[in-house]
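Annotators were shown the component list below and the corresponding predicted structure, then asked to write short factual statements about the assembly.
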Amino acid sequence: MNRKTKRLYSIGGILLVIATAAGLTLTALSSSIAYFQSPTDLVKNHPGPSQRIRLGGLVEDGTVKREGGAHVTFRITDTVDSVPVTYTGILPDLFRAGQGVIAEGTLGPDSVFVADTVLAKHDEKYMPKEVVDDLKARGLWEDGKGLTKTPAGDKTVSASPVMQGAGS
Amino acid sequence: MIVEIGHYALILSLSVAIVQSILPLLGARRGDARLMETGTIAATGGFVLITIAFSALVTAHVTSDFSVLNVYQNSQSAKPLLYKITGVWGNHEGSMLLWVLILAFFGSLVALFGRDLPAALKANVLAVQAWILTAFLLFILLTSNPFTRLEPAPMDGQGLNPILQDIGLAIHPPLLYLGYVGFSIAFSFAVAALIDGRIDAAWARWVRPWTLIAWIFLTLGISMGSYWAYYELGWGGWWFWDPVENASFMPWLAGTALLHSALVMEKRAALKIWTILLAILTFSLSLLGTFLVRSGVLTSVHAFATDPTRGVFILCILCLFIGGALSLFAMRASSLEGGGLFAPISREGALVFNNLFLTTAAATVLVGTLYPLLLEVTIGKKISVGAPFFDLTFGPLMVPLLFAVPFGPLLGWKRGDLLGAGQRLYFAAGVALAALLVTLALTSGARILAAFGFALAFWLIAGSLTDLVLRAAFLKVGWRSGLSRLIGLPRSAFGTAFAHFGLGVTVLGIITVSSFQTENITTMAPGQTVDAGGYAITFEKIVPRAGPNYEEQGALFSVRQGGVEMTTLDTAKRFYPARQTSTTEAGIWTHWFSQLYLSLGDPSADKRSVVVRIWWKPLVTLIWIGGIFMAIGGAFSLADRRLRVGAPSRRRQAVPAAVRA
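Structure shown to annotators:
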């Protein structure tokens, strides 16, 4: 093998590695990412059980039920629609009614969202950015004021310190 | 008054930095020694001024001066002293000041220890350092001033985010910044070389110690941060592929590649252009990390800032420096002459292989980190890229790299003998094979992936020690004279062996935890017992307690093995009234290298029982211990005679590069 062919092989090898990495990245980007959806999106689109979803919204008041062990059910709402969620595990410290949360998982065939992860950051001011942006875009949220419309049957949510701090 | 002195010192340091940006550069062009010397004075003076500013802010925090907005927002009089000090960098403004302090610190080190650098190179390096310093000082003074006063002064502050009230905050950010910002030296050297249009093997020898220092700190900072997140967040995970973690991991990957390519440049005067590019890219990734964390485009525990002007400002700095450096590179790179030739199978070839995989891996992490932002900006779709993405991309890229690691040090420069290296690795291969077979046998063939993972880890561990054993020639000359030969080996040989050994240890920890950890989530009432990892864990009682600025419900668990009490696990749910926030204090028991990890969830409706999450994490501590080994390896390399901190003296420059035994 002369020097030229050797160099050709080396460059070929390098390109192969880069191409493999690019291929892996593209595959991973199409298969293993989760899309953010609001309850309204979810009710409208009804994605299949293979699609991973990040469902973001507020925990609807009076819907959190702990059923034996670490099994919890609650509803996530964006004040327009709401979706029932089941989750097994320890909820984050700040999980409570009215708090903005993101649940990651899939929508089951019975229209119940099965979450494997529930996120609510460790900060009393924290409101997931996606949730705020989504509510803002639909005119349900104003900076500095929080929710402009209270979820049905609940007066305490927009008055709570959680909501007040979140927009500021 | 002290606050105003600090503020004034900070403004003064900006003007000094501006002077340092221009005069040494002019001096280097004109060959004026006195103008070039201004860089040394300015760099040292600037560091002193920023130290004064930083001390003023620390004083304001320690004395709880709530007339300073920054103190009011992030401190509280009841907070323990340690957290008052660490709280200085537990917020956006203060942490930027720490960033700049460390930048000035490194600049002054070059000024003081760089006496043997060629005067023009040193002047250029200090000028480039000053450009970065100027940009970030402007950023602080214009958008994130920590010295802003508040009128009237409130009675008490809002307190620090409870999650940050931990010893981890004292160590993690300073270490991480020493690493991040330390790469600025390599960047400045690269840009200075491009300005000069000249570069030689000696350049690599000057740059490598600085890169090593930064790399050591970054390695420790990342390991430390990972352990902190592990015990503090109570989720039992040690790496989340969170964008903020990636922000520190990308410079680490690029920096590791830079260390290795600088080696080739130093020894063989090859890969010059690539090394320069890598030095630029490494610090660019550090800047990108700063942008991601500080601009508030990401929501995370780390993102204190939500002010969009800050994000735009850092983005401008980012574009200016990365764009500027890369344009300069594009203009000048062709004028740099290439260096020594080598066969693909050689030490150089192995290091190129290393660089190829490390930079590609860094690129996949970059894509995974930026893709969600890109998608949101362009089509407004919100996605999250998490662990599954990185498992699929980063994971496969690491396998060939890790497999190749033991070969590298055994290959000769210029032209290596792969077969010979392979023969010398027989023992390591035997160990790996044994690990594979034992795992398969113990799990009755059910854990094939884990078995191969173990084989890889042991291959790395045994393989990295092979070089030392062979060079000491234990088998030929007996252990006694072998030992004396071992001690006589150059430190860099130990550096390589330790760092690669540490990598193997980390891989072993990762494989063991991800394959064999057990997780148990149950509701427990006092008196109940659960089994985990061969231990019986009994919920003893709940004890209410109060700390200086929190209240907590502690829960005590006893751990027994075969009826013998091993330890008591203390875990708690803490509530901080100042921030109306609660945190989970995980109970961790370390037994050898493994850990029992217990965290509390919510109490049940009747308040008698509580949700408990119990993990058995076999060999988990190896993940971080491996990181410490890597850092020790770096320290050994740094202590090597060839690479005294700063620069080798000019006398030694004259000696040919082939000092290495």
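Statements collected:
1. Strands of chain B lie at 383-385, 518-524, 529-532, 535-546, 551-561, 564-576, 581-585, 587-591, 594-603, 610-617.
2. Chain B has a mean pLDDT of 89.
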